[in-house]
Amino acid sequence: MNEQDFVARYAGIYEHSSWVAESIAPVAMDVTETDRIAELMADCVDNADTEKQLALIRAHPDLAGKAQIAGELTAESTEEQASAGLDQCSKVEYERFQALNDAYKDKFSFPFVMAVRGSSRKQILDAFSARLRNGYDLEFETALMEIHKIARLRLGALETDA
C-alpha cells in the first residue's frame, strides 16, 4: 500500500482529523497489524501539541446533539451513536443530553467525548454527570483516552469490513 492509499483507508479513524493518518503514513503504510496501526496513531496524537489535541477533541460531535438530529454526523459517528440508542432518545432524555452538552462545553470549552458503543443511554448520562465534576486537565486526558478507544473500535470495524 502506498501513502495515498493508506491515508484514504485510515483518514476517518480519528474524527475529522486526517492529519493523524497523514502523519504516520510514511512509517505505517506497510504495517498490516491493526493493533500496531492503533499504537502508531495513538502515539501520533499523544505527541501532538496541545492545540492540535484540542482541535481533535473539538472535532467530535455532541452526543444526541443537534448534528445527529439534522443528520450531519459522519457515517461512523451516526453508527456509533445509534449503537447506544442515542437516535431513540425520549424527549426528556434528549433535553437532558442537551443540558449536559451545554454545561460540559461551558465548563471545558470542548464537547463531551465517550466511546459509547456497548453503553446504554443511562450509562452515558451517568458518565456525563460524573465527568462534569472533573477538573480541566483530567477531563482533557479522559477525552483523549476515549478518542483512542473510538479509534480502536473504528479500526476493528474497518478490518472486519475488509
Q: What order do the helices and strands come in, and which of them pair?
A:
Layout lengths: L2 H8 L8 H10 L5 H13 L3 H9 L7 H4 L5 H9 L7 H18 L12 H11 L4 H26 L1
Description:
With 162 residues, the chain is mainly alpha-helical. The protein has a domain at 61-140: UraD-like (Orthogonal Bundle), CATH 1.10.3330. It has 9 helices and no strands. The protein has helices spanning 3-10, 19-28, 34-46, 50-58, 66-69, 75-83, 91-108, 121-131, 136-161. The longest helix has 26 residues, at 136-161.
What's a quick, concise take on this entry?
With 162 residues, this protein is mostly helical. Helix content is 67%, strand content 0%.
- In the CATH hierarchy, what is the superfamily of the domain at 61-140? Oxo-4-hydroxy-4-carboxy-5-ureidoimidazoline decarboxylase
Proper CATH architecture of the domain at 61-140: Orthogonal Bundle
Biggest sheet descriptor: none
Distance between the termini: 14 Å
Please mark out the parts with pLDDT under 50 across 5 or more consecutive residues, or reply none. none
Radius of gyration from CA coordinates: 16 Å
Helix share, percent: 55-70%
Shape: globular
Helix segment tally: 9
Give the CATH level 1 class of the domain at 61-140.
Answer: Mainly Alpha
List keywords for this structure.
67% helix; mainly alpha; single chain; 9 helices; 162 residues; UraD-like
